[in-house]
Design goal:
With 521 residues, the chain is an alpha/beta fold. It contains 13 helices and 18 strands.
């Protein structure tokens, strides 16, 4: 089944930078259900366990799964926080557990004939291969699956943040996820420097509608203002609070041309939008897998290291990508030497050793070429089993198809919300809310702070509620009571994520109906 001509035309319009128009009947249930019938990705929803209205009320384990219950599915719009559980996770975990129980330590090197998993030693590399088309790597050697996001960020900063007296600053956004702030702050302090002088924040555009928009112009201006003293730029591919998608290729190129190493936090981008990290020449990137990748709570993380930084070669040769571990040699001109090998400096551990020598237990560290040379310890086979199940589903589609649907379904949610906004504002004005001048005063109950340009966002809309006492709590309670699962960010933002893998147009329609009743009160 293919996307209907209507969905295809809307996708083409959006990708061309235009705003698609929805017909007058788009506000009806029938229209939403028609889009679902025509959606070629709709069958993928059956690969997931979507919580039901009744299962969300569970207080104790009953040995049942949501689909075992006679209850309508919840409206699960929180894949930007925790993705839905793939149905095959149990099969993959059971395979790992049976292997462990049956052959014990031999599971490290043995692949059971009818198992969906490879040997434990090769599981992380197998997952890395499956990430290649998702993150746009040149090969699996640029991808590593290990640890969690912030741990991986620290490992990357240990290698790529090499401050000098001249270049010591790190440029970040003004409102990063707190863990990124802590990581950058502590790395600067670790090097004996002060965040007050070495930590530079990109400020949002004060004249934007939301006051939260990070324009490319503002980012590039900040880079220019601190170019000669900046060692590293760290930004989010997608800003977690607003859902804004940044222009990663342009920003990366611009910063690198000014001697700055570029890293990206892709927590909200991997599995959500199309990426081409290798072609964009990104130095490094880190991400989690429990959001859009659906690997489970606290699941194992991932990292990307461009191939030029992962080279391992004789000490007589230089390790560089126009610099030992930077992009142009301005602040990175040396590699790390072990024995007769030379490579990008890093914090090392035995599991980063090349497999050919890993179990020789020698003192000389010989890293695996590529990103996997940054592995420190043996990754959890249980975590990798869960991730393997999640990545299997991505193998049934492509990031292009997922992005196509995301552009339309998120646009549909925006269209319906704007209809509600127009109606509620009209009702308020009709009821005569007066200002000091005696004129009717417009008072919107909410606004969308995610960029209106579909190409500047992923599968998320952030809804800023009016600053009215108790409104966030009232709306959140109504959504919860009606089976809507989304998240709130204080002081007054509700974030929804109509993830294309398992969310439907009918989900979006139902959510907006419930939200409208809640916000109108």
């Amino acid at each position: 089944m293919f996307f209907s001509s209507e969905l295809i035309s809307k996708t083409k319009l959006i990708r061309a930078g235009q705003t698609p128009k929805f017909p007058s009947e788009a506000t009806t249930r029938e229209y939403a259900e028609t889009l679902d019938v025509q959606d070629k990705l709709a069958p993928l929803r059956h690969d997931f366990l979507i919580p039901t209205v009744s299962s969300l009320k569970k207080k104790a384990l009953t040995g049942t799964k949501p689909q075992d219950e006679d209850s309508e599915p919840s409206i699960y719009l929180i894949g930007n926080s925790l993705g839905a559980q793939p149905k095959t996770v149990r099969k993959y975990l059971d395979a790992q557990l049976e292997t462990w129980a049956s052959i014990g330590v031999n599971g490290h090197f043995t692949t059971m004939e009818n198992s969906p998993l490879t040997s434990w030693q090769d599981m992380a590399e197998d997952c890395a291969r499956k990430f290649v088309p998702i993150v746009g790597a040149a090969s699996s050697s640029e991808v590593v699956v290990m640890n969690t996001l912030t741990v991986n960020l620290h490992l990357m900063l240990a290698s790529f943040y090499r401050p000098t007296e001249k270049r010591h600053k790190i440029i970040i956004e003004w409102k990063p996820f707190p863990s990124d702030w802590y990581a950058v702050q502590s790395q600067i302090e670790w090097h004996g420097r002060s965040p007050s002088t070495s930590m530079i924040e990109v400020q949002p555009d004060s004249d934007s509608d939301s006051g939260l928009y990070l324009s490319t112009k503002s980012i590039l201006s900040t880079i220019d203002a601190h170019a000669d003293s900046t060692a590293l730029l760290l930004l989010p591919g997608i800003q977690y609070y607003t859902g804004q998608l940044l222009d990663m290729p342009l920003i990366t190129k611009y910063a690198q041309e000014r001697g700055i190493v570029v890293g990206w936090d892709l927590a909200h981008a991997v599995g959500n939008v199309e990426l081409a990290l290798h072609d964009w020449n990104v130095d490094f990137a880190v991400w989690c897998t429990y959001k859009y990748v659906n690997a489970g709570p606290g699941a194992i993380g991932g990292a990307f290291v461009h191939e030029r930084h992962g080279k391992v070669m004789p000490a007589s040769q230089h390790v560089n990508g126009n610099g030992a571990n930077g992009t142009n040699g301005h602040s990175h001109s040396h590699g790390q030497t072990a024995g007769e090998m030379k490579f990008t400096p890093r914090l090392a551990g035995w599991y980063g050793n090349d497999k050919s020598v890993r179990f020789n237990m020698e003192r000389t560290f010989q890293p695996t070429p590529g990103a996997q040379g940054w592995v420190i310890s043996n990754p959890s086979a249980v975590d990798l089993a869960s991730l393997s199940a999640a990545l299997e589903i991505f193998g049934k589609t492509s990031m292009k198809d997922l992005r196509d649907k995301a552009l339309v379904i998120t646009g549909y949610a925006e269209f319906l919300l704007n209809k509600v906004l127009a109606q509620t504002t009209s009702d308020i004005n009709s009821n005569g809310v007066n200002g000091h001048d005696g004129q009717k005063k417009e008072e919107a109950l909410f606004k969308i702070i995610t960029p209106a340009n579909p190409l500047e966002r992923g599968s998320q809309l952030s809804i800023l509620l009016a600053d009215k006492p108790g409104l966030l709590e009232k709306v959140s309670k109504a959504l919860e009571e009606n089976g809507v699962v989304c998240d709130k960010r204080k002081p007054n933002v509700i974030r929804i994520a109509p993830v294309p893998l398992y969310c439907t147009f009918f989900d979006v329609w139902r959510f907006v109906k419930i939200f409208e009743e809640a916000v109108r009160g």
